[in-house]
Structure formats: structure tokens, C-alpha cells
Amino acid sequence: MPGTYNPADVLQALPEVFLASVALIVLVLSFAAPARRGWMETLSIGGVVGTGVLLVWAAVPLFQPGGSPVSVFSGSYLVDKFAIFFKVVFLIATLLVILMSIDYLPLVGVPVGEFYAILLFSTVGMMFIASGGNLLTLYIGLETMSISIYILCGFLKRDQKSNEAALKYLLMGAFSSGVILYGISLLYGLTGALGFEEIAATLATIDLSNPALLLAMVMLTAGFGFKIAIVPFHMYLPDVYEGAPTAVTAFLAVASEAAGVAALLRVFLGAMPHIQVDWTVLFWILAALTMTIGNVVAMAQRNIKRMLAYSSIAHIGYVLIGFVAGAKLGISAVLFYVLVYAFMTAGAFAMVILLQTETVKGDLIEDFAGLGQVKPIAAAAMVIFLLSLTGIPPTAGFVGKFYLFSAAISAGYVWLTLIAVINTAISLFYYMRVAMVMYMGEAPEGLALSSSRPLHAAVAFAVLGTLGIGIFPQWFLKIAQASVFGLLP
Amino acid sequence: MQAVFFFVVAAFTVATALLVVTRPNIVHSAVALIFSFCGVAGIYVLLDAEFLGAVQVLIYVGGITILLLFAIMLTTRIATRVDVFNEQMGLSALIAGGITAILVYASLTGIQIAGEAPAPVETTPALGRLLMTTHVLPFELISILLLAAMVGAIILARREKE
Amino acid sequence: MIPVSYYLVLGAVLFGIGMFGVLTRRNAIAILMAVELMLNAVNVNFIAFSRYLPNSTLDGQVFAIFVIAVAAAEAAVGLAIVLGLYRNFHTVNVDEINLMKW
Known about the structure:
CATH topology of the largest domain in chain B: Four Helix Bundle (Hemerythrin (Met), subunit A)
Number of helices of chain B: 6
CATH class of chain C: Mainly Alpha
Number of helices of chain C: 3
Oligomer: heterotrimer
Number of strands of chain B: 0
Number of domains of chain C: 1
Radius of gyration of chain B: 20 Å
Distance between the termini of chain B: 63 Å
Shape of chain C: elongated
Number of strands of chain C: 0
Structural class of chain C: mainly alpha
Number of domains of chain B: 2
């Protein structure tokens, strides 16, 4: 089929087409009717939900027995369960971020329509990452996502920290793209192909100790390492998280990290399964480093956005454990953890936004002081997120870690699991410090929370997800396990 | 003959690229960058990729460097001549040199393309066809990317009303 | 016909020069220029492979076109950010723009 284009293929990509169209309408509205804020909000939420419905509709035949993945557009677009799973995670994250933003954007003075349009463009890019069947589609999806996020980071134009965050993220992102591209060019030179399947098929026939192949692997690891902030490529991340508008930080922490993991899985499992031995060793070391440094440095933070930044670095370390463990068990644990992580982290960032009012910025840990006495319900929600981030039952974080660790042990990585358990103990300190401040601290005079209804809905949704997955993990785990078929041999 | 042409163009490209990263004055760097891009365009022509050579000149030389020069004019006082390097010059040179050595080693030992290259064909129509058939999806996606970048650049660069 | 390795060495050297620029330059615009050099190096690789690979499919050239387009978008956004930054900080040197500590 190379060299042909079948117009019916577009139907397979309907969810993306729909979301991109909604984004375009929002963009047009933003200058045609800038006063109609409500329209743009409703349209964005409707767009995300509608895309979700289209996705589920497309997924039904796939999840039935005998349903097989579809590859269209000459192999550049894949419809498989793996893609659907990640797209649902992206859409949940986007929905939560939009709910958080509705009253946050006017508070900080960000142009509304353009914000939602670019946010949705970024989500479209992520969806193409998850569905990418060759390196070209994956790369363009990655750049669509990244460039949109550079812009979103700089949306607080009068805030120097926001400017700085945008610049740092752009420079690091552009640099890491260069590194990834060099790796891709070597893979192309070795195999003469861009599609994951063709690359894997050709690599099966060549000498696996080829220096160019190993170099390509290292460069792709480093490049994606920058994108998802694996230690030692994480240095920029806390600054970006602190400086970006909090809603964008939440989007970065949840959706963009998930997309990075999706890209990593596609490239390494899809194109380079034959050198798994090599990259397993590499990622063993990176996983241990990433979670340890993330957790240790998080202890020293006063700003909650920075603390959550280091915490998200640590969580990427945990995710890498499942990646190292590999096989169906390990990879499905990764997928499950990505879903869990989306709910609990988005919830924690929603709490930071909840504290922000016209007078208080709410991004220091002290700002949570006394919340337990004054606003018990909000404090309880925060405690649930903190428990889940630590990994304590009955929350989703516990189940997620349990699956990751048991996958690692059954694959024989006892030492790595031990390091992870010690790290979990370390993380207890700084997560519980926030809880301590909330319940032991003295509330400042006139502590007020944002009265935004959509924001409350976002917190409630995140609580529901965190507890729901924690109490009924079986159903979600089954979906995660089904979703790795097609990706693994 | 071809080899001579290659060495001349490659030496020119590398020399101007070195100027880009070592000249203290950023305007000089930008001008050197123009020449470096032109050198790369020459390499493309040597590789029978005429269309890419033209695109390189149009977009890099005609677009990106002009944009860069505008940004330099708007943000740098010509009179001020600060040292534009940070302190880790030696270390950076070591790292970059080491990485280059690894890249050269891996490319030389790892990539073996046997036999003569295929005879050159006219690539431009074939490229156009590929963009509209096999790679139509990324081609459509990049329009979203460019739109987002355009809108974003306008928002970020626009002066806010007081 | 000269061997493909000549082009690959050129690509590697250009990439190294770009990386050196990224590591040493302080001016944000200069760093962007160095990144552009790295992207050019990648494109040299792509086009060389596209020319020399047996039964070549031109995929390398297509990839190079996309890289150029993305580079242009990145440069536009980058320079817009730099302009906004200059308005607030009155400098574009990255080591002076450091409100937040690592």
C-alpha cells in the first residue's frame, strides 16, 4: 500500500479530527466573540467529552474477542488498545485541567480562548504520539505537544518566573529534540525504514552489538529522558513547574509525562525489542537514580509546586521499574500506574489552585497551615492525594505500587524493588509533612479557598478516581492488561 | 571532482559553524550562521536533493536567520560587548569533543551501506507524492503545530495593553 | 561517487559544534542558533541516508522537510519568548535569568 491514500482512513482518526476541529472553533471564537467566555469553556469541555465518546465507540470492537489492531495511513497511524488506553488518560487529564482553569485563568489574567485552543492542540499532539505507527508521526506528535506547552508555560506574561519557565523549557526541549532526532537518523540509516514494525524486523537480522545501534539507543534514551525528566536529565523540571501557571503545571505533570511514557514504550518495545537486554541494564540504573534523587531532594522543598515536581520525578522512577521488569506484567503495571498517577497528581495540583486567591498565591507548603481545622473537607481530599502519592491503602497509589513491585520481583529484580521500598519510606516524610502542617499548623486570619464550582468538581473527580481505583482495582487492571496486547510479542 | 567539491563545501560549513559558536559578538554569529546554512544547502545539492537545498535556503536563510537578526536587534544593545560565554568553556569543549568522537566512531564502524548508491532520480515530484499519500497524516498534523506556534508567538510577543 | 561516511562525519562534527554552542553560550538567541546547527546536522544525516540506502524510499528527505518546518516553528516561538523575557528582565543572558534555584 505505500504510495496510496485511502480517504476512508480518516474515519479511523475521527477522535483527533473532532478534537482539532473543536480547538479551531474555540480559537475562532476567541477573537470573534472574546466576551463569550462561557461558550469557549463549554465547547472545550464538550470537545474533550465528545472525543472520549468517539474513542470508546472506536474501542468497542477492539476489546471484543477477535478484535485486532488496525493500521491505516500506510502504517503511520495505529488503532490498538494501547493507543486507546493512553488517549483516555490524556483526555481525563485534559478534562481535569480545563475544570481547574475555568476560574483560575481570569484570576491570573490569561487570555481564555487562546489558552483552551492551544491546550487542545497539545492534546491532539499527544493522541498522535499514542497512535503513531512510525517515527515521523511520533516525532511530529511530540513536537505539537511540546511547542504548545512551551507557549502555555509563558502565558503569565508579566510574571518573570513564567517567562523563565517558558525559556528554560523551550531551550531544553529543542536540545532534547535534536538528540532524539540524531538517534532516529541512525535508526533510519541502519534499517532504511521509519515504521516501528519494519525497524524491528530489520534489526532482527543485524548484529546487535553494532555501535551505531547502541548509540541510537543511548541517544533516544537521553532525549526521552529529557522529555520525561529522568535523572540526570531532570535539572530544568522544577523551575518549569514552579514558574508555569499552576493549571499548566498540572497538565505538564500529568498529560505530558504520560505522553512521554507512551512514546518511550512505543519506540523501545515497538522498534527495539531485540536489544531489550541492553536497555534493561541502562534503565535499571536510571530508575534507581531517578527515584532516589527525586525523593531526597523533594524533602528540602518549601514550595509545594517544586515539591510536587521532585515527587513527579520520583514517580517516573517508579514507572521505570515496570519498564525494566518488562513482559506483560511489568508493562501493564506501567499503564495502570500512569492512570493512577494522573488522578492523584492532578488532584494535588487542583488543591494548590484551590488555595490561590487574589491575595494569597498558595504555592508554599505553609499556605496549607490550619486547613484541617478550618476547611476539613478540602483537607481530607488533600490527605487522600498525599496517601495515594505515598502508596498507602486503600488508595490507588498503593495498588499501583503493589503491581509495579510485584512485577519487578517476579522478573527477579529484588534489589531494585528494595530501593523502591526504601524510597517509599523516604517519601512518607515529605508527603506527611504537608498533612502535619494542615492539621497542626495555625490557620492565618481569614483563610479563604477558591469558590470555583468547576474546580471543586475537578477535586471531587480526582478523589473519586483515586479512591475508586484503589478500592476496585481489578477492573482497571484488566483493561491495562488487555491494552498491552499488540505491543508485546 | 565530486570529492573536491564536497571537501570545499564541508570545510566552509564547519568553519562558519565554528564561527557561530565562538564569536563573542552575536551579530557576527548570526551572519556566520547564514553562510553555514548555505553550505549545508550545497551539501544537499551534492546529494541530489535539489528541493531540500531550495527549502533550506528559503526557510533557514530567508526565514529563520532574518527572524534571529530581528530578535537580536530588539534585545541587544550593539554598544555593549559582554563576554558571551559561561565559565565552563574548557569542560564543554571536552564534552562536545568527546561526543563528536563517539558519533564519528559509531557512524564509521556501525553504518555499512554496501555497494554503489542507486542512480539519482528526480526527487521533487516523488517527494510531493509522498507527502500527499504515505505521509499525509504527519503533513496534516504539522499544520496544527504551525498554527499553534503562530498563535502562541503572537500572544507571547504582543505588548499587553495597560 | 564519494562514500556515505564522509557525510556522516560532517553530520557528527556539525552536531558536536552545535552541542558545544548550547553548553557554552549565555545569550538565549545564541543557544537557539546552536540548536539550529544540531538540527542541520541531523538533516545532513537523513538526506545522506536517503541518497545512499539501497532501494531508498525518500523517507529521509521527507523527514528532513518536517524537521525544517518544526525548526521554524520552534524558532518563532523561542524568539517570541525571548522578546517577552527581555521586556521583564532587560537581558537575554540565561545565567542572569535565574530567579529560581535548582
